[in-house]
Amino acid sequence: LPTILQRTDQVKDQYDYVIVGGGTAGLTVADRLTESGKYSVLVIEYGVFQNGSAVTTVGLGFLGITDPALSFNFSSAPQTSLGGRSFPVLVGKMLGGSSGHNGMQVHRGQKEDYDRWSSYFGSNSCGWGWDDILPYFKKAWHFHPPNKDLATQNGIKYDAKYWGTSSNIHASWPTFTWSFLKTEMAAFGDIPGVQYPPDSGAGQPGAFWYPTSADPGPVLRSFSRPGHWDGISDARPNYHTITGQQVLKVLFDKQNRATGVSYLPVGSTNLSAALSVKAKKEVIMAAGTIHTPQILQASGVGPKKLLKDAKIDVVVDLPGVGANFQDHVYQIGATFNLNNFPPVPEPNDLFNNATFMALAQAEFDANRTGPLTIASGNCGAFLPFPLISPSSFSTIASRYESQPAGAYLPPNTDPLVVAGYAAQKKALASTLRSKSSAVYNFFLRGSRNESAIVYLHPLSRGTVQIAPSDPYFTQPTVDWRALTNPADADVLVEFTRFTRRYWALPALQKYQPVEAAPGANVTDPKDIVAWLRGNMNPSVYHPIGTAAMMPRDLGGVVGQDLLVYGTKGLSVVDASVFPDLPGAYTQQTVYAVAEKAADLIKGRQ
Ligand SMILES: Cc1cc2nc3c(=O)[nH]c(=O)nc-3n(C[C@H](O)[C@H](O)[C@H](O)COP(=O)(O)OP(=O)(O)OC[C@H]3O[C@@H](n4cnc5c(N)ncnc54)[C@H](O)[C@@H]3O)c2cc1C
């Protein structure tokens, strides 16, 4: 059989496992489940095999981000707290999913993030704290140390003990850095309390360098398709893949056992022509945070009222499906331009300086080295809130903690989801008070214009819901509800103040930093928040939480075994299971969760 089944009639009637979505998590799990040869697996992927330069090129990062051939790219619900603006929902649509067009930044959360996930299960918690997940970070990533000179010149700290070397997913380093980064990183050391952890993977906040998801041999993007599929699916007769197919729903028997899925070629809307395939052991959901809840809801697993509105028979009333939606927010202000930038290359030169770009391209073509080995970035500050706002962090955390749990959730939120948010609120108030968790991220570019600040633990919660009139073929309604919780505004005002404090450091004055946004004259918190509502972006493409791993009585969708409550033989393995955001971008954790998921699934035998 060919690597990718060419026709749906080549799909067998039944496999041990059917995996919905051949993305980051889906292909990782499929690789691990097929490696012993004992189990048959079918991966059904909506997108197709894509290997063009927009996917594989490392330089400049995500070139394919909005390309409709590579990306689901549709409009969100208007954000009521952001002046009614809508935003594009961008998630990967190809074999490899979002790992095929992400920004390639590789870092993991802090120890406390994973311990917090585990804490939601109280005395029943097992298997998801930092000590449990650390072996999976090691299994998931092959670490290549940076070039010695580069590390010495830039003060790049790393410690290989936090990493493994067996995976085909690579974490490597550019051979060149923008020299102003060294100045920016050093300046953080002038702020009391900022640490430089021993490695980006040490589970500690601070200012640190981190690798790129690139294969250092050919200097190409390393993602789940080359890492967990190319050549592997071909070599294993027990591993089938079909692409260009949309899974419509999970099929259940009368005992709520998932027996398989139904699907249609992408583009067809003829439900009566839907095909089906059976899963003997498990249906594994890996369609990502936006589409896993869509498919579950369309299958009758979700909030009863929504299913009723969509005239879908309820299999399990599970109010958490599509609730608890979170993403990192950015474009949150305090943008600075450096009016006296030193005479050194900087990232804008790749766009504005044709000679520099031509030289960079020539160097890359000749040696695979130079500026075009940088994706979207390799260092930044990941800082605790007490350090950002020594005078207000405690008041802000307490004010947040004393909110009634349901006060800022969507109207008519189910009591179980409210209970889950109450648990998160308690835990996240501790995160706001902690010196060991990062809340603020300044992703440094070494540029004369710096603005990339990311809020790592937003407290507002959104929803992803099927369109009741057309659950299958209309994209789900994605509503981040960014900035609906006033505590987020409190935190973001402190972020602006802190960023100003950073640029006011004596060591940076010779570069003449000038605030471009919101503007040095915007100092009243009300005015800062008004600016945020008009300018911030609710997504930096790290959606999570819509099938959360939480106890069922806290609105959870899956347990610690990743099985969907109220069903049998149905699990979720993608970013939708994160109960809340780690203090880091999401891909490293997605791979680790998927590695652990594969062990859990195999362990069920
Ligand atoms: C533009 C962008 C930039 C990012 N940058 C970074 C970064 O620099 N660093 C970082 O750590 N993280 C980054 N991320 C986040 C990270 O890539 C994601 O968190 C991670 O890849 C998500 O993995 P997943 O398995 O949950 O979903 P995905 O990898 O998105 O996989 C879901 C798959 O399911 C398929 N699918 C969807 N619906 C169906 C259906 N009905 N039937 C069949 N298949 C279906 C999709 O086509 C897709 O292939 C970025 C993400 C994006 C989108």
Mean pLDDT: 97
What percent of residues are in strands?
Answer: 15-25%
Largest sheet: 7 strands, mixed
* The CATH homologous superfamily of the domain at 8-103 and 224-324 and 543-603: FAD/NAD(P)-binding domain
- The chain-level structural class is alpha/beta
**Which hetero ligands occur in this complex?**
flavin-adenine dinucleotide
Q: Classify the fold: give the CATH topology of the domain at 8-103 and 224-324 and 543-603.
A: FAD/NAD(P)-binding domain
In the predicted model, the low-confidence regions spanning at least 5 consecutive residues are none
Q: Count of DSSP helices?
A: 18
- What is the 3D shape? globular
**Taking Cα atoms only, what radius of gyration do you get, to the nearest Å?**
23 Å
CATH architectural arrangement of the domain at 8-103 and 224-324 and 543-603 = 3-Layer(bba) Sandwich
Distance between the termini: 28 Å
The first-level CATH class of the domain at 8-103 and 224-324 and 543-603 is given as: Alpha Beta
- Helix content range of the residues, please? 25-40%
Using DSSP, what is the number of strands? 24
Family: Belongs to the GMC oxidoreductase family.
Organism: Echria macrotheca
Protein name: GMC oxidoreductase-like protein
Pfam family, one: GMC_oxred_N
